[in-house]
Structures are given as structure tokens and as C-alpha cells.
User: Fold DNA ligase from Methanobrevibacter arboriphilus JCM 13429 = DSM 1125.
Amino acid sequence: MKYKKLVDVYESLAATTKRLEKTSILSEFFKEVDTETLPKVVLMALGTVFPPWCEEEQGLADKLLMKSIANVVGVSINKVEDQVREQGDIGGAAEELYKNKSQTTFFFKPLEIDFVFNNLRKLTKISGDRSTSRKIAIVLELLSSATATEAKYISRTIIEELRIGVGEGTIRDAISQAFEVEKSVADRAHMLTNDLGLVAKVAKEEGENGLKKLNLSPGKPVKPMLAQLSEGIAISVEEMGEAICETKYDGIRVQIHKKDDEINLFTRRLENISKAIPEMVDYIRESFPNQDFIAEGEIIATKNNNPISFQYMLQRVRRKYNIEKAIEDVPLKLYLFDLLYFKEPMIDNPLEIRRATLESIVKTEKSQINLSKMIKVTVENISDAQTLFNESISKGHEGIMIKNPKEPYIPGIRGKKMLKFKAEPETLDVVVVGGTYGVGKRANFIGSYKVALADENGGLKTLAHVATGLDDETLAELTNLMKKYKIVEKGTKINVEPRIILEIAYSEIVKSPEYEAGYSLRFPVVKRIREDKGLADIDTVERLKSMFKG
Ligand SMILES: Nc1ncnc2c1ncn2[C@@H]1O[C@H](COP(=O)(O)OP(=O)(O)OP(=O)(O)O)[C@@H](O)[C@H]1O
Assistant:
């Protein structure tokens, strides 16, 4: 199938903001595509060529992409940079420049989807000697056969920023519409495999029955089950009748996968972080039986055996060099709390069975490998849960989790079966969309950050400007990130791609016509940068509204 066909679909998707329309456009297209190409176009509609948990990265710097565009259209790199500033992104710039292209290609052959897909995949595989020039050669091969609109989308796929307003939810709905399978069945298959390409292929070939047979398998991360806020320990325990209460640790959630000899650790964004914390991989290997499994836990950073700020954990995960030193400087501890697979899928078992199996297989002799502190509570001994909460806080942890022991593990769901009760007031996770440089001593730093929430159409709505809670180090780090994701800069204002997630505390939610969300925050303060979260994890306007009413 010609790449032009996919590009026409991208254009129609970009032309509407309505989710239902987007779903129909995609669904019609999916019906037309042959089975072999279908998984590819599904990934490409998400702006990528790999499922999210694959470690591969395109690894082509923006500058090199701009250089390639300059080369193909026959202009200087400065001209490309000017156009990027004007258009707001490299893709848009490529399209404009192509329209006025002076050079013509002699052997113009229309691009095929398979060819574009395979070449983009090849980009990630290149390393070592002359890797840059080999990568450029691939990009040039693609760009020199492209039309203006194709060049726009090839560039955007390379930088993984398609700008067609399509997320996983829309793709899932389109698959269910195209192949007439229940949304909930497509949903579950997606949560279990995290591979929408596969879900589409199975839906097309085998329908609902095929999808129902898909299950989790070690090596492929599952979307984690998330928690809702508890309104109070007593109320929650009374509602559940019987509860498992655990210390809530403040670190990074990890999903641990052992498949044959390989152990991999994934974050909640499904990023593989095994290489950054190799000592944990070793401890886990020594503490679990030699069987395939999937377990979940929280890893925290410690000093003298006590928990320290979540930021240290993030630093450990980010670290690419000098890892040996980091292992010494920031020791880690794992607190295990769930078992999703052991010899076979376990998620449909009640929590109490999963927990009991976990306890029976893990050796906790090593101080780094622990089970989360857990007690069973009923209405008769609610005060024990309060005591666990007090104890957890005094030891420097975040609060407690209150879980229903009879419930299965439901991937990707934020339900009432798992609740969290924290000492600190609830915060919001928001994405930065812009900022303003400071004055005087802080003129080189972006001092104020414009942040947004997600709306129901997969778009963003601005909510507030936040300028407090930032020490000099964080300010410098954020400023660098803002420059990295810059779209346009004018005077002291900068607009950025929505990549940086912040956790914000505030004193009150107020109505405000000034911001697109219709609400704003009084005294917003940055608590921390949430590198463990992505755009899909930010809070929604809907949640804000219900918090306002609450
Ligand atoms: N014993 C535990 N059981 C389950 N989750 C735990 C436990 N201790 C710490 N956690 C962490 O708490 C999180 C549950 O809160 P939630 O699902 O709302 O995630 P979140 O949005 O990151 O919330 P928060 O910002 O409050 O951590 C889990 O994702 C996990 O990282």
C-alpha cells in the first residue's frame, strides 16, 4: 500500500478535533489495509514504529534531520531552522520547504508503507562506526522520494511527534469499530499485551474469540492497575468489609519480568530501566525461583537504610554512565506487593492468593529485597490500619494503600479496589506547555511555567502558571528541558512540546475564565518533575471538576 494513502489519513485526522470522527476515519482505513500491513499502520498512526515497551529509539538528533531536509531541498541549514521557528515544528517546516523545492529527483518512485516502516525501524538498529552517516543515508533515501506532505509526516515520525491528535484510546475504539469486536474485549487485550498492532491483527483475523485468548506473557509489560484516593481509612475499610493495608512507599513502581534467563524491570510508562539499576536485577535473580514470573513492587532510594526523596530514585534511573558509583552512593530497596504471573497468568486470582504466592516464593534475606509491610484489617481492628499509617509516616513513607483482598488484578484501571491514603494533600499531575524567562539574576532561567490538563478529546487545556517550589538546580534542569522541547520562543515567552510532567500542590481550586480548563489553582507549587509519568498519565479536566465539587 502506498504511503500516500496513510498520509491522506493523517491529514484528515489532523483536520478534525472530534474524537468520534477520528475513530471513524481510522476504522474505515483499518478495514482497507491488508493483514500484514495492519500492525504497521496501527503503530504509525501512533507516531512510532515500535510497541511502547521496546527499548529501541530512533536516535536521530533534530539537527541531523534538519540537515537532511536542507540537503534534499537544496537550502542552507539556517533556512531550515528559520522555517522551523516560523512553522513551530520540523515537519511543518519540511512541508513548506518542499513546496518551493528547487532540486528535482530523477528517479521518483512513490513510497510504500512497508518501505517507510522498515527504513524507520532500521534507523534504530544502527550503531557504532559511521552510524550518523548511515542514519542520514536512510533518511535521505526516504526524504528524496517524498512529496511535501509525506516529508512532513516522515519528519514527524522520526521525532515521534505526529500532531494528529490520536492516542491509544482512539486507536482501540477504531479497531473495535472496524472489526466489530466489543470495546471492553479490545481494551483488555491491549492492557495485557500493550501492543495495539497485535490487537488489530488478531481482531481482524480471529475476532473477539482470538482477542480473548491473548494473555499477559513475561517480557511484555502490562499496564499497571492504579489506585483511587481513599476518603478516610475507616470509611474505606468499612466499605470493603475486609482489607489488605500496606505501607505506601514513595519511589518508582516497577514491573519485574523474568523470561527464561532474562530479567527486565519496567516503569509505569513501560520503560525498561534494567540497565540503570543492574544491582537490583542481580538481587532479584538471587531472591526468586528460577521460573518465569511477573511481579510488582516499589523501588525506593535510601541513605543509612532510611528512605530519601523520590528525586534520588529518578536520578538513579536516568543515569547512563558511572553506574557503579551511583550504586554505592544511592542504595536502593525493593518492596514487592503483587504477583501477576508465576508459571501461568495469575491476574484473575484474588489479591490474597497472589500475595500468599508471592510470599511463598520470594526470599527476603537480602536487605534490598522486601515484601511491602502488610496487615489484614476488618471493621473490628480498624485502629490497626491507623497505627500502620502512623508508623509508615514516621518511617518517612507516604501513607498506606487499602486493597480489596478478593479482587483480581485489572490492568490499566484506576478503580475502587485499590485505594491510597496519604499524609499530604492530593496533588495534580500536569504537563508544561509554555513558560516565561525570569528577570534580574534569573533572566537565564524560565521562572514561570504554563501548565495544562488533558481534556476528553485527547487535547490539552491550560490551567495555571506555576512559579514557586523550584530550587536553583531544578530551575536549571527544567530550563534545559524547555529548550530541548522548544517549539517557538518570542521575547521572554517560550512554547514547548507537551513532554514535561510536573506534580503540583495548591491551596485551592478556583473557577477562572482566564484558563482554558475554566478553573485554576491558588498558590500552585511544583512538588517535583514526574519523569516516571507520560502525557497519558496526566490529570484530566474532568477529575479537576469532580475535585472542585468535592
Ligand atoms: N504497597 C504498595 N502497593 C501498591 N502501590 C504502591 C505501594 N507502595 C507504593 N505504591 C505506589 O503507589 C502508587 C499508587 O498510587 P497511584 O496508582 O495513584 O499512582 P500515582 O498516580 O503515581 O500516585 P501517587 O502520585 O500518589 O504515587 C503505585 O503506582 C505505586 O507506585
